[in-house]
Design a protein that fits this description.
It is built from twelve helices and 17 strands. The protein is an alpha/beta fold and 408 residues long. The chain folds into three domains: 52 residues; 130 residues, no CATH class; 161 residues, Rossmann fold. A hairpin with a 5-residue loop joins strand 13 and strand 14. The longest helix is centred in the C-terminal third of the chain and has 27 residues.
């Protein structure tokens, strides 16, 4: 029996059931796409690509001396390029270059010295293990700082020694006259004489060496005077550079001879020194020990340089005469050069053997376990841009629907 409270119940239920349906499909789609783009952007997606492409391998030549290196190995390089290899610069970016333009565009003697060993380690992270890699470079020691590293590369390295005549001709050293004031039996004078001869033979400088026992035997025109036995030149005798032993209290001390400034030289063992009484800033400190005490100082008086040595050129005092760095320290003292000509600088001509420049190559089995490298392009910014556009479109469309309803 229908009563007033239930008479309309079935019709009401049917009406509610029929109202459950999708009415704004476009608005729903926009909002779903908007949320999807936000989720993808937060996931930081990336597009992976193989840097080696479909090429047969890489050929790398350093930017420094590119033209000279390319010309030296041109037949080999051209044959590899014709076989489908890519040409890249052997630097931090490994930039791909054109064979026609690169040989004339990348020569610069002013570029900083870069360690090839560090570049090979970066190349190991950049390329798959099986891709053939050919490096053509010079064999200057300055380019191989650091330790040899193990790499998983199919590496072939060709090196050569560039002609150095042009660099040596730029120095054009003037002849130098050196006088050593000491007794003939002095062990100090014998070590110093051997060092000066070694410097002359290596650098090509003309060094005239005079050994005298008395101050009256010092010849006019002496550029460098080493007083090794306590005697000094007469008051009327003036030289441009005077090196003399300090006098005073001898101190037994276990330390090292260290350059006071920036240098690549390692410490040399020190056993004895003369007590110094130098006020701060009075003279220039050239060598010091591990405690900061002066071992060699320089002062300038009317354009004349005076050096005071607070130790001796004697194995009983230090290991300086027995060290391979002794000639280098004396050469740096007598013939100061700009940083480009110092050991390790862009004009250092020391070379390294092929066996030493090659990195350690891992075994074939270990190379197979190396994951193939692929460069990645981040895509999160693209999804954020799409999400922003969808949000703007959704807001405009929603406003349009509400306006349409209000005017219906």
């Amino acid at each position: 029996m229908r009563v007033g409270s239930t008479a309309l119940a079935p019709e009401s239920a049917i009406s509610v059931k029929r109202s459950v349906k999708l009415s704004q499909l476009i608005l729903l789609l926009l909002r779903c796409l908007f949320l999807t783009c936000i989720v993808l952007a937060l996931a930081s997606p990336a597009w992976k690509t193989n840097p080696a492409g479909q090429k047969n391998g890489w050929v790398l030549i350093p930017p420094e001396g590119f033209a000279a290196t390319y010309q030296h190995f041109q037949p080999k390089v051209d044959s590899l390029l014709q076989a489908g290899f890519e040409l890249h610069l052997f630097d931090e970016k490994f930039q791909k270059v054109s064979p026609a333009m690169a040989p004339a565009a990348h020569d610069s003697s002013q570029e900083p010295v870069v360690s090839y060993r560090r570049l090979v380690a970066a190349l190991d992270d950049h390329l798959p293990a099986q891709l053939p890699v050919y490096i053509f470079s010079d064999n200057y020691l300055r380019h191989f700082s650091g330790s040899r590293v193990p790499v998983s590369l199919n590496l072939n390295w060709y090196d050569y020694t560039p002609a150095a005549d042009t660099i040596r001709d730029e120095m054009n050293p003037a002849p130098v006259t050196v006088t050593i004031l000491a007794k003939k039996a002095s062990i100090d004078s014998r070590y110093l004489s051997a060092v000066l001869k070694a410097i002359s033979d290596y650098s090509g400088r003309s060094i005239t060496l005079n050994l005298v026992e008395g101050a009256h035997d010092i010849k006019p025109g002496t550029d460098w005077l080493f007083c090794l036995d306590g005697n000094k030149p007469d008051k009327g005798q003036v030289v441009d550079h005077l090196v003399e032993y300090a006098t005073g209290k001898e101190i037994e001390q276990s330390s090292y001879i260290l350059p006071a400034g920036v240098s690549i030289f390692e410490g040399i063992k020190l056993y004895r020194r003369i007590e110094d009484s130098i006020s701060s800033g009075a003279v220039e400190l050239i060598w010091k020990d591990g405690f900061g005490h002066a071992l060699l100082t320089r002062s300038n008086n009317a354009g004349k340089e005076n050096y005071i040595l607070y130790t001796r050129f004697d194995p009983a005092w230090n290991d300086l005469p027995l060290s391979g760095q002794f000639p280098q320290l004396i050469a740096e003292l007598m013939f100061p050069v700009n940083p480009h000509e110092k050991p390790g600088g862009p004009k250092d001509l020391a070379t390294i053997s092929h066996a030493q420049l090659m990195p350690f190559l891992r075994a074939h089995a270990d190379s197979l376990s190396k994951p193939a490298f692929s460069s990645q392009v981040a895509l999160d910014s693209i999804f954020w841009i799409i999400a922003t556009l969808l949000f703007f479109i959704e807001r405009v469309y929603s406003f349009y629907i509400q306006k349409k309803r209000s005017h219906a």
